[in-house]
């Protein structure tokens, strides 16, 4: 019998936002991922990168100007660096956890490019927050560099960049080959490196793709049974942040789209998770999406926590 497949999409809670946090978080996250592999799942891992890609872009571009011979790097190159920086820790963390359990499997990070539509409306309105939270003064300096910033109520200011929808995964065949060989792949990190086709050449776009949308596309492409989005909350709520907030344990496709219409989900955080889940599930495929925390990951598979979205 074919093994069941799962895409595990790691948010900031499972990953941290800088290197020391990442080292600590990856230790815990690798244990949960290894539990799934030990239980017989074929696992593809994907992850966030917004704080990291913002940090790398600032570092590359400030130092590029400060020192002779150092050059700056465009956002697409910084996305590639973030995949390497995060994938390196994750693949070693998962490898070590598997070895401790006597499981001999390879874990590989695939630098993944994601085709985007050059005419995507998202290029006209930068909306994806990246990097650190800034003071009003730092935000002004950022704008003087030609970057866009947005105020996040109660938290400060953050850079925002364009976030086009992912259209197709350039390296999908190698990702599928690793899954078919029953090994572990880390792919489409940070939503994938956004690229546009120019003849035989792929040209990087100055954008950051929403990792939840990339995770949904990856899950569809590898024909996963489950898309598990691991985030900072145990479940999705109705009336989030209001006095009548209520956890949603299960929702079907109709309920999910009604709640989307009602504006129940914040556009920069929960909405892409729900839309990616709905798109992945489709009709007549017996798939499910789970939105939960790392801590509830295993329980949610047994319907004992998290929010489960199914047809
Ligand atoms: N309806 C909702 N139910 C639960 N959380 C919500 C809802 N709407 C918005 N959120 C927010 O979404 C956040 C998780 O998304 P995000 O910060 O993008 O995390 P990640 O890095 O894991 O992708 C939660 O911490 C919560 O603040
Ligand atoms: N690329 C991306 O969506 O990253 P975050 O999850 O960190 O926002």
Automatic annotation (TrEMBL):
Pfam families reported for this sequence: AA_kinase
Keyword entries, A-Z: Kinase, Transferase
An MF annotation (GO) of this entry: kinase activity
Tree of life domain: Bacteria
Protein's UniProt keywords contain Kinase: yes
Annotated Aspartate/glutamate/uridylate kinase domain residues: 4-292
Matches recorded under SUPFAM superfamilies: Carbamate kinase-like (SSF53633)
Gene3D superfamilies in the cross-refs: Acetylglutamate kinase-like
InterPro entries from the UniProt entry: AceGlu_kinase-like_sf (IPR036393), Asp/Glu/Uridylate_kinase (IPR001048), Carb_kinase (IPR003964)
Pathway assigned in UniProt: Metabolic intermediate metabolism; carbamoyl phosphate degradation; CO(2) and NH(3) from carbamoyl phosphate: step 1/1
Protein name per the record: Carbamate kinase
Source organism of the structure: Lacrimispora xylanolytica
Lineage of the organism: Bacteria, Bacillati, Bacillota, Clostridia, Lachnospirales
